[in-house]
Amino acid sequence: MAKALGFRTAVDAVLLSTALAGMRRVGRYEYATDRINNGPIRTVLETYLGVGEWILERGTRTMARYPMTFRRIPEDQVTRRGYRGRT
Asked: Which pTM does this prediction carry?
């Protein structure tokens, strides 16, 4: 039971880190980790955020490798609220 709970928590943490990486890229933000004075905590946080960046990058590369399955959305079809769909 404890192992399953630990695994689920780890998966949730990776999913959250990946979502944060996606929000960072879409919103063009940067995390102010340099404002964290405690070196070990800053290192752990940067590593945690780096895992999400790595997962997101792997997914992006995988999608680019299969253009018949995953099409890029044309720039004129993207709005602030997202994809307008086909017109």
From this structure: 0.71
User: Distance between CA atoms of 11 and 60, rounded to whole angstroms?
Assistant: 19
Number of H helices, E strands in the chain: 2, 2
Contact between residue 11 and residue 23 where contact means Cβ atoms under 8 Å apart: no
Distance CA 55, CA 17 (A): 9
Answer whether 45's CB lies under 8 Å from 27's CB: no
Instruction: Report the mean per-residue pLDDT for the chain.
Output: 85
Q: Print burial letters for 65-81: b (CB count within 10 Å at least 16), e (below 16).
A: eeeeeeeeeeeeeeeee
- 79 bridge partner residues: 82
